[in-house]
Design brief:
With 494 residues, the chain is of the alpha+beta class. Helices cover 18% and strands 31% of the residues. The protein contains 11 helices and 26 strands.
C-alpha cells in the first residue's frame, strides 16, 4: 500500500488535470517563460463592464384577467425528451422564492406583475426582448444598471419567433448600446455569457458554452435555437446571450426544467433570425411572411421505405389547404418537396423558413418527388395569416394496438374533417401504433394510400396485413395532417 501526503496528493491531482487538458507544467526549479493555458482562461470582467450598461430589467403590469405571461419559468417546450414532473408544493427552494419575491400574480384582484430582461440595440432607446415577457402589458418599465428607470412602449412583436421590440418614451440623450454579432459563426463549445435579471436579481451574469446549434424544441415551425449551459432562469427571458467579443449572438427565451429553475439546458433565439425581422417590426409592428399552404413532415426511414423513396430527405406533404398556393400549383398529398426556389430541401425543418422569407406575391419554382419522378411546379406565394386553432377532440385494439370509431357528422364538424375517415378512440401502451406516435383523437384518413371511409373498411385492410408489413397512415391531428409509418407485428392479437 502506498501512502501519499496531502501535499503530494494535491500535486499529483494538479499534474493529472494538467495532463488531461493537454497543458505542460514546468518542473520545480526550472524556468519556463511560456504561460500555462490555465492563466489564459477568459476574463469576463471587461465584458461585463462593457455590456452591463446596455442590459435592462423589464417590469410589466397586466390587467387582472389577462393571460399570465410569467417570464420563462412557464415557457418550457412541450414534451421534454427526458423525464420530468410538476414541481410539488413542498419544494423548499420554490417556497424560498415565493417568500422573497412574492407570488407572480400578486394579491387577488390586483394587477399582475411580470419581470424579464432586455438589451438596448439603438442609442435612441430601442430594446430587444421576448414577446412572452411583454405580451398583454398595460405598462412597461425598464431599469438600467445605474438604477435609472424609464417608461417604454411596444413598437412591434412577433409571437412566432417570440421577439418584441420596445422603445423608451421618456428618456433623453443617447443610451448605451450592445453590438449585434453573427450567430452563424458560433461554434459548439464556444464560451458564451447570459445576462439579465433572473428572479428579479438585476445585473446577473452567468457563463457557459454553446452546447448545440439549430436545436428544435417544439416551439413552432421556425425552431432554430442555440442551446447553452450558461445558467438561465426565470427573469432571464429577453436578455442577451453574448460571445467573448462582447457581441449579442442570441436572445434568451426558454429552458428545460423540472422545477422552473436552471438544469443547464437553456435556449436562445439566434441573433441572425432577430436581425431579419427587427426592421419590419420597427416599421410596421408585425412580420409579414410567405405562405405555401401545406402541412409537412420529416421523411423517416420507415416512410421512405413505404413510399419507395431512395433517400430520407425533403419535406413530405401530409396536407394541402384549399385555395392555397400549393393547391393552385397542384401539389398533392404524398409529394415530397426536395427543392424550393433553387434551394435544396434536405429536411422538412428548412421549408417553413425558406417560404417565410419569400416576399408575398413572388413567383418561385419548386421540385417535388411524385411516384419516384421529379416534377417541377410553379408557385405564387401568398401571405401567412394568423392561424385559427381548432381543438382536437377524441374518443376506441386490433393487431396494431388501437381501436377506432366511425367519423360521425358531429365529430367531423368538431374536428373540421371532410371526406370520411375513422377516429382513434384508444391506443394500447407499447403497441406498434403507440410506438409510431398514433394518439387518441387522431383521424385516420388513409391506410397505405387507400382512403378510409368506415371502421369496417379500416378493419378489412388491417386484417389483410402480415407480420412485418409496412403500414402507412395518413392522419388528421388538430389543424394538421401527417403520415406515420409502422410495421405490423409478427403475430396477430385476438
Amino acid at each position: 500500500m502506498i501512502h501519499l501526503r496531502s501535499q503530494n496528493v494535491k500535486t499529483i491531482c494538479a499534474l493529472s488535470l494538467a495532463g488531461f487538458l493537454g497543458f505542460t507544467t514546468p518542473v520545480r526549479g526550472q524556468s519556463d517563460t511560456r504561460h500555462s493555458a490555465l492563466t489564459n482562461l477568459p476574463d469576463f470582467t471587461v465584458l461585463s463592464e462593457k455590456l452591463s450598461p446596455a442590459v435592462v430589467n423589464i417590469a410589466i403590469t397586466q390587467a387582472t384577467g389577462s393571460p399570465n405571461q410569467a417570464p420563462l419559468a412557464q415557457r418550457q417546450p412541450p414534451a421534454p425528451p427526458f423525464g420530468g414532473q410538476d414541481p410539488s408544493g413542498d419544494d423548499p427552494l420554490g417556497e424560498l422564492y415565493r417568500r422573497f419575491f412574492g407570488e407572480p400574480d400578486g394579491p387577488r384582484g390586483q394587477p399582475r406583475q411580470g419581470l424579464g430582461s432586455g438589451v438596448v440595440i439603438d442609442a435612441k432607446g430601442i430594446i430587444l426582448t421576448n414577446n412572452h415577457v411583454v405580451e398583454n402589458a398595460e405598462k412597461i418599465t425598464v431599469r438600467f444598471a445605474d438604477d435609472r428607470e424609464f417608461n417604454a412602449k411596444m413598437l412591434g412583436r412577433d409571437a412566432r419567433t417570440d421577439i418584441a421590440v420596445l422603445q423608451i418614451t421618456d428618456g433623453k440623450g443617447a443610451f448605451p448600446v450592445a453590438p449585434l454579432g453573427d450567430s452563424a459563426k458560433l461554434r459548439v463549445g464556444e464560451w458564451v455569457v447570459a445576462m439579465g435579471s433572473p428572479f428579479g436579481l438585476d445585473n446577473t451574469l452567468t457563463v457557459g458554452v454553446v452546447s448545440a446549434k439549430g436545436r428544435r424544441i417544439g416551439a413552432g415551425p421556425y425552431d432554430n435555437f442555440i442551446q447553452t449551459d450558461a445558467s438561465i432562469n426565470p427573469g432571464n427571458s429577453g436578455g442577451p446571450l453574448v460571445n467573448l467579443r462582447g457581441e449579442v449572438v442570441g436572445i434568451n427565451t426558454a429552458i428545460f426544467s423540472r422545477s422552473g429553475g436552471n438544469l443547464g439546458i437553456g435556449f436562445a433565439i439566434p441573433i441572425d433570425i432577430v436581425k431579419e425581422i427587427v426592421p419590419e417590426l420597427i416599421k410596421t409592428g408585425k412580420v409579414t411572411r410567405g405562405w405555401l399552404g401545406v402541412n409537412i413532415q420529416r421523411v423517416t426511414p420507415e416512410i421512405a421505405e413505404s413510399f419507395g423513396l431512395k433517400e430520407t430527405r425533403g419535406a413530405l406533404v401530409a396536407g394541402v389547404m384549399a385555395a392555397s398556393p400549393a393547391a393552385q400549383a397542384d401539389i398533392r398529398v404524398g409529394d415530397v418537396i426536395v427543392e424550393y426556389n433553387n434551394n435544396p430541401v434536405v429536411s422538412a425543418d428548412q421549408l417553413p423558413i425558406l417560404v417565410a422569407r419569400t416576399p408575398v406575391g413572388e413567383s418561385v419554382k419548386a421540385v417535388v418527388v411524385r411516384d419516384n419522378q421529379r416534377v417541377p411546379v410553379n408557385l405564387r406565394i401568398a401571405e401567412l395569416k394568423d392561424e385559427q386553432v381548432v381543438a382536437a377532440v377524441a374518443p376506441k385494439p386490433n393487431p396494431l394496438g388501437l381501436t377506432v370509431q366511425d367519423l360521425t357528422p358531429q365529430i367531423a364538424e368538431t374536428l373540421g374533417v371532410e371526406g370520411g375517415g375513422v377516429v382513434v378512440a384508444s391506443v394500447q401502451p407499447q403497441s406498434a401504433a403507440a410506438e409510431a406516435g398514433v394518439r387518441r383523437g387522431d383521424v385516420i384518413l388513409e391506410v397505405n394510400r387507400k382512403r378510409i371511409v368506415s371502421v369496417s373498411a379500416f378493419q378489412t385492410l388491417i386484417e389483410q396485413l402480415k407480420g412485418g408489413d409496412n403500414v402507412l397512415f395518413l392522419l388528421r391531428r388538430g389543424n394538421d395532417s401527417l403520415f406515420l409509418a409502422l410495421k405490423a407485428p409478427g403475430s396477430r392479437q385476438g
